[in-house]
């Protein structure tokens, strides 16, 4: 089955170029040229990946990202002509998974999209696929987290972050290490992205966030249950 992309970009030339590359790579692509249409298409298309330009008419990419995150943990890549760190941090805080600055190579964008999809499908853990901590249960085979029996939807980055912490339980992982292992070595942001995602992950875990310990001045550790 083809992976489905919703591409939201108001510049026709860029939209057609990116669309062609993804179609050649075997994707099914639906296009929109503004944020409001993107939200309408999203509900009917149910895409596997969303690529959003930030500067768009009617509703910008940040606003669309915020609304989509209320509905889904779908992987989101933001496109922008801005390279300021504050804009990138804002995008990640809203739940975006990757950030690409214009001008960019469509071929590289496809590669980054495929890499993001692979990470979203689940991080390998050396166990039966079921990890329990407190009232929480992570099923890595189903890519599903439950807290007190209720499913909690995680974004791909939140899921990767939780898997990384669990896989290295009892070990302090620095913020820089988390950045390179979850966001990739090409990521140009800073450790505030890690702190922001830890905060969101803790919020979703509720009381079971007690397993994620902050090591002041260093990073984070997933506490080993006695």
UniProtKB/TrEMBL annotation:
<dbReference type="InterPro" id="IPR036388">
    <property type="entry name" value="WH-like_DNA-bd_sf"/>
</dbReference>
<dbReference type="InterPro" id="IPR001789">
    <property type="entry name" value="Sig_transdc_resp-reg_receiver"/>
</dbReference>
<feature type="modified residue" description="4-aspartylphosphate">
    <location>
        <position position="53"/>
    </location>
</feature>
<dbReference type="GO" id="GO:0006355">
    <property type="term" value="P:regulation of DNA-templated transcription"/>
</dbReference>
<dbReference type="InterPro" id="IPR011006">
    <property type="entry name" value="CheY-like_superfamily"/>
</dbReference>
<dbReference type="Pfam" id="PF00072">
    <property type="entry name" value="Response_reg"/>
</dbReference>
<dbReference type="InterPro" id="IPR039420">
    <property type="entry name" value="WalR-like"/>
</dbReference>
<keyword id="KW-0238">DNA-binding</keyword>
<keyword id="KW-0902">Two-component regulatory system</keyword>
<feature type="domain" description="OmpR/PhoB-type">
    <location>
        <begin position="128"/>
        <end position="224"/>
    </location>
</feature>
<dbReference type="GO" id="GO:0000156">
    <property type="term" value="F:phosphorelay response regulator activity"/>
</dbReference>
<feature type="DNA-binding region" description="OmpR/PhoB-type">
    <location>
        <begin position="128"/>
        <end position="224"/>
    </location>
</feature>
<dbReference type="GO" id="GO:0000976">
    <property type="term" value="F:transcription cis-regulatory region binding"/>
</dbReference>
<dbReference type="InterPro" id="IPR001867">
    <property type="entry name" value="OmpR/PhoB-type_DNA-bd"/>
</dbReference>
<feature type="domain" description="Response regulatory">
    <location>
        <begin position="4"/>
        <end position="117"/>
    </location>
</feature>
<dbReference type="Pfam" id="PF00486">
    <property type="entry name" value="Trans_reg_C"/>
</dbReference>
<dbReference type="GO" id="GO:0032993">
    <property type="term" value="C:protein-DNA complex"/>
</dbReference>
<dbReference type="GO" id="GO:0005829">
    <property type="term" value="C:cytosol"/>
</dbReference>
<protein>
    <submittedName>
        <fullName>PhoB family transcriptional regulator</fullName>
    </submittedName>
</protein>
<keyword id="KW-0597">Phosphoprotein</keyword>
<dbReference type="InterPro" id="IPR016032">
    <property type="entry name" value="Sig_transdc_resp-reg_C-effctor"/>
</dbReference>
<keyword id="KW-0805">Transcription regulation</keyword>
<keyword id="KW-0804">Transcription</keyword>
């Amino acid at each position: 089955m083809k992976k489905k992309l919703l591409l939201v970009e108001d510049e026709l030339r860029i939209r057609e170029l990116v669309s062609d590359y993804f179609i050649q790579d075997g994707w099914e692509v639906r296009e929109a040229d503004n944020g409001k249409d993107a939200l309408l298409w999203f509900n009917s298309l149910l895409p596997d990946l969303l690529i959003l330009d930030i500067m768009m008419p009617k509703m910008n990419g940040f606003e669309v990202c915020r609304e989509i995150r209320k509905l889904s943990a779908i992987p989101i890549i933001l496109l922008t002509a801005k390279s300021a760190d504050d804009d990138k941090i804002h995008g990640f805080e809203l739940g975006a998974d990757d950030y690409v600055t214009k001008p960019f190579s469509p071929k590289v964008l496809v590669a980054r999209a495929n890499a993001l999809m692979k990470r979203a499908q689940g991080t390998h853990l050396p166990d039966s696929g079921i990890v329990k901590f407190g009232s929480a249960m992570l099923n890595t085979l189903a890519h599903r987290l439950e807290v007190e029996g209720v499913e909690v939807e995680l974004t791909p980055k939140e899921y990767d972050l939780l898997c990384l912490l669990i896989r290295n339980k009892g070990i302090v992982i620095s913020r820089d290490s988390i950045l390179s292992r979850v966001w990739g070595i090409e990521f140009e942001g800073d450790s505030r992205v890690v702190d922001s995602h830890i905060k969101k992950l803790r919020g979703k875990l509720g009381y079971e966030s007690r397993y994620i310990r902050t090591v002041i001045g260093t990073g984070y550790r997933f506490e080993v249950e006695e």
